[in-house]
Amino acid sequence: MSNDVDLSSKEWCDLIFEGKNKDFGAYQLRRTSIQRHNKAMLYTIIGFIVAACLVFAWNAYQRWEAQRQLALQNQQQTQEFSFGASEEESSEEEEKKIEQPKEEEKPEVEEVAQQAVTELKIVPDDKVTTPPPTQDEVKQNDAAISNKNVEGTLGGLTAEIPKETPAPTAKVEQKVAVTVPEEKPKEDDNKVFQSVEQPPQFPGGESALMRYLSSHIQYPAMAAEQGIEGKVILQFVVTKNGQVGEVKVVRSLSSDCDNEAKRVVRSLPRFTPGRQNGNAVNVWYTLPVQFKLQK
């Protein structure tokens, strides 16, 4: 029979407080207890659902932020590479313009014309020793007048005609332009490039590099106890023989996490070196290392 009794019902409450002061607070508490219990249960369920949603949203944000940082890094490397390639193309065009020979200038020719001048000398009559030629003699000498000197007197005048008229001479001055090719400065063997035509590659590609990092990273105990999570961004030199050279921290997380990331990067196997103009060169390589606790 006790199983059929509803202890929260109004009839049971009236039975308990029959003949007692119902204006006392205990009667009201007994009547409204079921409502309070229901409200408490509802608030508890709502609070649990809100907390679960917040946790799920935070995890989704963390994953999105990691993907965004990786995409931003890849985009930056691509822009640096395209910018370096455009600079090289412009420098090659300038070199071609410099190496083009100038058109040879036509030599300037100075022509000097000479003109034969017939000198006339006035001689007094008493000093003329040669009689003037006759008309027949003049006619016979007309044909050879251009090749011989003819001296005659006419009315006290003596005319002298030069034997030959010198041909005009030309003074030629030729200018030759000589183009001396500029010597290209020799590149320093120890120079480290920010971007190159062919960037260095990890054996197996970028996915193999991420797997290597995740399998060799040892989470620092101090960072794990303090709940430190995040990303360390490193830059290191891939030398011309593919080995890892200088390593530096671009964005730090903590000293323990920074040192662990540098240790793993120094242990990386050889890369395929980057190339510039067909030659292997030293190149800076940027790498983000993610530290995330397993929950």
TrEMBL record:
It holds the Pfam family TonB_C. GO terms for biological process: protein transport; siderophore transport; transmembrane transport. One of its GO terms (cellular component) is plasma membrane protein complex. Keywords: Cell inner membrane, Cell membrane, Membrane, Protein transport, Transmembrane, Transmembrane helix, Transport. SUPFAM superfamilies: TolA/TonB C-terminal domain (SSF74653). Its main location: membrane. InterPro entries: TonB, TonB-dependent_transducer, TonB/TolA_C, TonB_C. It is a single-pass membrane protein. The keyword Protein transport applies. The chain crosses the membrane at residues 40-61. Residues 204-295 form the TonB C-terminal domain. GO terms for molecular function: energy transducer activity. The keyword Transmembrane helix applies. Gene3D superfamilies: 3.30.1150.10. It is found in: Cell inner membrane. Residues 94-105 have a biased composition (Basic and acidic residues). Belongs to the TonB family. PANTHER family: PROTEIN TONB, PROTEIN TONB-RELATED. This is Energy transducer TonB. It comes from Sodaliphilus pleomorphus.
